[in-house]
Amino acid sequence: MNVFPKTLAGFYIKYGFRPLRKILVPWFVLFVVTDLLHSTWWPISQKKIIALFENHIPAGMDFITYAAPTIMLIIGIFLLSDTMDGIQNIMSARWRPRAQENISEALNDYIHHQSMRFFTGRIPGKMNSQVSYIFGGFNLLWDLTAIISTIGVILLNMGLVLAINLYVALILGFAFAFRVIYSFAMVRPVNNASKNASEASSTLAGHVVDSISGFSIVKLFAGSENEKKWLRPFRRENIKRRIHSSFIQRLMWLVPVYLWDILFGAMLFIMIWLYSKGQMKVSEVVFTLAAYQIIMGNIGHIARSIPNIMDVMGSAQQSYKELVKPIEVRDAPNAPALRVPRGRIELRNLSFKYKRNDPKNDDGVGARSRAHAGANVNSPKKHTRAPKIVLDNLNLTIKPGEKVGLVGSSGAGKTTLVNLLMRFYDPTAGEILIDGQDIRNVAQDSLRENIAFIPQEPTMFNRTLKENIGYGRPGATDAEIRRAAKRASADGFISETEKKYDSLVGDRGIKLSGGQRQRIAIARAFLKNAPILILDEATAALDSETEAAIQKSFEELSAGRTTIAIAHRLSTLRNMDRIIVIDHGHIIESGTHAQLVRRRNGIYARLWRMQSGGFIQE
Prior knowledge:
Elements: H1 8-17, H2 21-54, H3 63-113, H4 116-119, H5 124-138, H6 141-164, H7 166-213, H8 215-220, H9 224-276, H10 282-323, E1 345-354, H11 370-373, E2 388-398, E3 403-407, H12 414-421, E4 429-434, E5 437-438, H13 444-449, E6 451-454, H14 465-470, H15 478-487, H16 491-495, H17 514-528, E7 532-536, H18 544-558, E8 562-566, E9 578-583, E10 586-591, H19 593-597, H20 603-610
Helix pairs in contact: 1-3, 2-3, 2-6, 2-10, 5-7, 5-10, 6-7, 6-10, 7-9, 7-10, 9-10, 15-17, 17-18
């Protein structure tokens, strides 16, 4: 993953312009030249047509013969201009979608490569809005190009008017200069207003998505009215900032309009006076009126475009600033792929601590779903309290094919240990080795390709059952997917659905029960066929009957694989080769279920006695 530029302009240049510069540069030149021809040739052609009627026809020549060369020239230049316009449109159609695709792909790839901490406290809906704002900012290229060519049109027409009369040219020059100065004076207030409006809109969008995502809780607690009240302050703030931004933009446009109307009247008086003195011809008056309309129309176009450009660019810059953060966990240069011939895992003097101003969860950094759920966590104020230690100088070796259970109360460090093993975070000290290879020195993708992870609440895409299972191994055949589903005891309920393996599971798998989602996750793990298996509370949310059925699939899945299972329900760990008890980041006890239960004063034995229905009493 490449490092993103620090500025939004640098990002656009790197991913939007540079790869396509060979076609973009000639397109830009053609665009400007075509616009200049379109906008300047019309008043010139009007002047030439009127001049035909003003000038004396040479002796021995009729009017049609005299006018024919001028008419053919006018038609020829218009045809040339239209041809050039068609060519630049074809060129735009070729490079524009490619550039947009580069921008979109770069942003999506960047987000997928971000560290787990990046997602903690971020609302998915807001991130989606920020990506849209950045993408929208790039689309302003056409507006900016049009403004550049428009300025050229204004200056060229003013030069032509200057050749006719100095006074009229001065009026146009004054109007243009005033608009430029006034626009620069309004840049900061317009930009600030647009940024504030963008932030309010992104925040509202994120909260709306968060509210809709929790629709089941809203239904269960009859919370529709509460959600309306909760969202109301964000809606009001969004309206307030949008109204203010709109007012500032209209103010930027309205003042010059009044000035232009007054100046148009002044110009008419001057031209009438000049014509009465014989200092202007009718053709020159017609040309000046046409040029004035083009100049004022183009200045008005710029005036209307600038607020929108500032609004969009302000939103894009703010979004880029908030979204593009350094990736904390990166691959070492030329990192090799992890090779796992046996599956031996070693934790050597492993320590991890997080800053107090980091968003908290079960283990301080548990990926379980504060990150995936998109919880709204405001950035706390900075302070200097000492960081919290989650794991402290922990040493553990897991033999190839060994099944190890991790036990401990919430916050003990279990999930943090798994997150470090998956390299969602890097340890503060110590190292993790798999078959003798430090996981910080290998490619992250290769590490995770060798680990099958089944969480308490499996993540489902709103895609077909086949696609969700097939995500375990891209390119798997239909027969392989069906075989994996059968091994996970999922083929039965899949066959009962209307479209079978082509049935959509709904948003986050809402069409499936908890047990069915878990079976899909198991099928995905069977298909992946990784040498290391991690189960993180994989049956905690299931009823006892479903748990018992799925436990058999887990036993088959873990056979011959190095397995780590986190569980509060201790009955699910009875068949583990070894159980590790963690407390405050330290290994307190280690042994089989039978050995640990016999330690009457041990923590595991106490937890076992405290269980009611198989759960640790917190």
